[in-house]
Amino acid sequence: MSSSSSSVFPTTSLSQQSSSTASFFSNPVPTGGPADGNNGETRVLDDSDLSIVYWPGPEQWKNETNVDAYNHTIHQTSCNTCTAALLFNGTGVSLTSVISPSGANFMAVLDGVAAGPFQLYSDVESTTVVYSIEGLPLAQHNVTFIKRSDDPNDTTLFNIDSLTVVSRAAISATGSGSAVPPTPTGRSSTVQQTQPGATPTNSVVPSAQSSSPAPIGAIVGGTVGGILVIGVLVAWFILATPKKSNELGFNQTNTIPGFLQVEWPTNLNHEFLRLENRAKAEATDRGKSQASKLPRIRQFSPFNQEVQAAVNALYVAMNRNELGEVVQGFMELKRLNALDKFMDVDVAKASSLLAEYLIRAPKDPQRSQAETMACFFSTRGYMDPLNSAMAHHLLQNDPDSILKLWDEHREFKTTGIGKPAHKIGPDERLLYVTVAAAMKDDYSIAVAAFQTSDSSFDPWRTSAFIERYLFQSTPLIRQRFRDFLHDAALARDVAHFGPLTDQVKDIGRLADDSSLSDLYESIKDCLERGLFVVSGVVPQHPYVQVVDARLWSLFIWGAVQCRQVGIAEKIMKDMQRYGITPTLDMWSILLKGYAKRGMVENMMQTIQKIQAQGLEPNIKCLTIVMSALFDKQMLQPAREIFATIQSYSPRPEDPDTENHIPQLLVAYNVAINGLLRNRLVTAAQGLVEKMEEEGPHPDIVTYNTLLNRFTQMQNSSETAAIVRRIADRGLQPDIYTFTILYVGASRTGNEDLKKSLITRMRALDLKPNNAMLSAAISFILGSGSTDAIPTAMDILRTMEQESDKAVQPNEVTYHTIMHAVDELVVQKNLDSGAGFNLVNELYQRMISRGFRSNRVIHHLMLRMNLRRPGGDSLRVALSIFDQLMKEQLINGDSWYILLSGLEARREYAVAKHMVDVLRTSSHDVRGSLLTVVDRVSRY
Q1: In whole angstroms, what is the distance from residue 230 CA to residue 141 CA?
Q2: Which residues, 6 or more positions from 542, have their beta carbon under 8 angstroms from its beta carbon?
Q3: How confident is the model at residue 720 (pLDDT cuts 50, 70, 90)?
């Protein structure tokens, strides 16, 4: 990329940054050609190159795998209106895409001149060049590819495989000094095309009109300097033009849609008197091949002449880049209550001009109106003008003016005029408001502001803000700003609770006990300082947040998910210190934590604590204890607990009978499973018979538990007897029933039974496939016992030997077993060495069947290698992370797993190096990742 574009796009991709990871340990000599395909005259840009700007973004443009594509990936979309744009230096450019039966039509706009439509349709899927143009002047150019359809049911696909930029001198075809205008070529339907001075012909290669219209850039005058502006203009053309099928569709009489065929005069003043009549005349001439010369106008229904005149005057001022006139035009629209007529493209054009003025302008009469305009722009997603206005007042030590702007911005927000899908530019409003609150020493201002936003700020961004704007402030103001920022954000999360729940869930998923402790201690600190109060205490100030029982349950659950029962115990003690009595649900969460660690003695002590509190342990608590006792083969205590549970069996006259029966049935099923796992088959059968006679009546889970055991024993008579009992009781077999029977038939080689089972499954609309069998494996491994591994491996082996592709294993199957083995290692039920060897074997089996490792499997292998001792495991882990970067599968979890794993290994130098790499990337750093980055940075 040229230096002119370096300020817009990063010059180094994430995969290039990752090379520093490997070089940290060694310096290999590069081999082969350049990674980007650069041969001196051409440069190939992969679809994931950061220079390509996709609109509207990743929610519509998906990164897909395609084995025939360049680097095996494409960016693909099925949306009705999407664009991909590139700013490049060169003499030509070509687009390579995957063509297929579902391929879409698209247009190409090069430096404001449209061409097309081109098409990606083909009977056979393949990769080919679909658009190409050479012979351009050696300069900077903009090319934008547009997929556009008015059909809401359109599901055709447009994709970008790669873009090739050409940089070589043009050869004159005439041999004279006159240049021959370059003509784009590509794939399209056979359409009738007429070019000035040419005879109509049927062609499969459309070309642009030789009498090219004035560039689209004339709309915004000389301010168009980058690809982002071109993207905004393309979006304006697509979204603002009236949607008539004969002018927006890819018609057969002209290859350029009507909305791109307008030639724009540089001076619009004389055009505005007869707009209405001329617009009607234009509509009657849509079918003509020569495009109308009329300027684009904004007309509204019902037609309001005063509003129309204000819009037109504003539009003229914007084309002149006269900020004063633009501000006056804005204020006139505000007076007419017509700010909804202010289009996004107008906001985009005026935004940079307004921001530059507001950061430097003195307090002149126009400034107040310009700041009002900036407040409105922020509600439309353009933050720079408001940021500039607030920055100006901050540097003037004027907190009151900052707060006045915030209030004015909130007033615009309540009108609902602008609700952008995303923000353009960094949103630093809360930082400025929090500084103003710190300068006024009024915490309530910061709390009130944070309650209206979900923004959060990482330490790097906060530190950069302090260095930029608070360098003249006292240390007291800077520290107060940091404290207000932290406390107000935490108060917001506690008040709304949803963000806090999501944060704790992420922490639990990552088993990040350090982040959980930090977050909990922050809440405790706010309680100690009176910023929070527990439920039942009346707040003395409106900004004080009430902490209710949900918060304590959430953190106990998070501690258990992190396998840190010590933290859970501490939270329970703190609750009682604050006068809060733990509920049975809270006690049951703590019991689950003990059960996962096999801490039976602690579980029995907890039962005593529950009773000392004046509560009776419920069925749920006792079932957790009983299951743990069976796991430890402590049969006598387990049976005693079960006897207590049986005494809870409700009588028909009890008012809470319906609520007790489901819990009781779960307890019985757990007891049956425990008896079978301890090889007490007769006792388990006897308990099922008692249930059939006295209740609670067995469900399909009860019989599946028995079936699984008897198929493992290859006891065909008992298996058949259980199947008959299922039928006699009118129960519906589920996928686990059939899977258990199918695996049992595979063990014995009973092909007739397998065929019969498949027939019966299809009759019940249960089709045997790898998803069903993977789910069955997950069900079997859910017991958390190593005894389940042989059964799971048997199912996998059966699937691998199947000729039916629908039954053969896929990535999900392998990952299900690998994840279950990893859990057994984490819970210390399986030796780490044996667990790693089994996971590695599964990984190799998966790869040998032609499957690629996805992000989830990469994460699992990364985590297991980081837990293994030795230098070789570290090299493997870094290699896996490097692969994640190259395949662009990396996300926040990837960084957290790597950095927390390096921290646990005490590889601080490597961890700090990787934090530096993270800082140069575009990843959002928050939550657990933010906590571990902060810790690593302090080593």
Answers
A1: 11
A2: 444
A3: confident
Q: How far out from the chain centre does Cα 3 lie?
A: 32
> What is the β-pairing status of strands 139-148 and 92-99?
unpaired
Q: How many helices (H) and strands (E) does the chain have?
A: 38, 17
Question: pLDDT tens digits for 614-629?
Answer: 999 999 999 999 999 9
**Residue 230: pLDDT over 70:** no
704: left (phi over 0), alpha (psi -120 to 50) or beta: alpha
- Cα–Cα distance for residue pair 143/157, rounded to 1 Å: 20
* Sign of the CA dihedral with 46 first, then 50, 53, and 58 last: positive
* Surface-to-core class of residue 422, CB atoms within 10 Å of its CB (0-12 exposed, 13-18 middle, 19+ buried): exposed
Range with the largest mean pLDDT of 198-202, 272-276, 344-348, 763-767: 344-348
Q: Mind spelling out the 3-state secondary structure of 372-400? A: HHHHHHHHCCECHHHHHHHHHHHHCCCHH
Phi, psi of 532, rounded to the nearest 5 degrees: -120, 155
Instruction: Check residue 463 and report its DSSP letter.
Output: H
Beta pairing class for 113-119 and 158-160: unpaired
**Residue 176 CB contacts under 8 Å (≥ 6 apart), including other chains:** none
Please write down the long-range contacts of 389-397, taking CB distance under 8 Å and 24 or more positions apart.
Answer: 389/358, 389/359, 390/428, 390/429, 390/432, 391/359, 391/432, 391/469, 392/358, 392/359, 392/360, 392/361, 394/432, 394/435, 394/436, 394/469, 395/469, 397/439
Question: Do 565 and 594 form a contact (C-beta atoms < 8 A)?
Answer: yes
**Residue that is written with structure tokens 């039966």 in the block:** 101
Three-class SS of 831-874: CHHHHHHHHHHHHHHHHHCCCCCCHHHHHHHHHHHHHCCCHHHH
Report residue 104: phi and psi, to 5°.
Answer: -105, 165
pTM above 0.90, yes or no: no
Q: Residue 637 and residue 114: Cα distance in Å, rounded?
A: 81
Range list of β-strands (E), 507-567: 532-534, 545-547
Per-residue confidence band for 691, with pLDDT thresholds at 50, 70 and 90: very high
Say how far apart CA 191 and CA 203 lie, in whole Å: 7
Tokens of 370: 């310009």
- Residue type at 397 in one-letter notation: N
> Where are the extended beta strands (E) located within 181-339?
185-186, 191-193, 201-203
- Residues whose CB is less than 8 angstroms from the CB of residue 911 and which lie 6 or more positions away in sequence, other chains included: 899, 902, 903, 936, 939
* Collapsed DSSP state (helix, strand, coil) of residue 345: helix
